[in-house]
Amino acid sequence: MSTGPLPEGTTAGLEALKRLLVTMRPQDLPETQANAIAAEISAIRLQLKRLEADREWVEQVANHATPA
After folding, report:
1. In total, how many domains does the chain have?
2. What is the pLDDT of residue 51?
3. Distance, first Cα to last Cα, the chain
4. Is the pLDDT reported for residue 55 higher than 90?
5. Has residue 5 been placed in a domain?
6. Does 26 map to a domain?
């Protein structure tokens, strides 16, 4: 696993997955696979929330460290 910017096209890939899921019927996606995808999406959302909290914390620290 690397750190740094996301690979180019990550957002487009997620958009393509979303569009594919919209066109699917229940029988097109086994329940176990749907549950696995849902779990990964939930984990991604959690990490995005963590990053936002980290970003806010860094901003607060920077604002307090700046001389008035």
Report:
1. 1
2. 95
3. 40
4. yes
5. no
6. yes
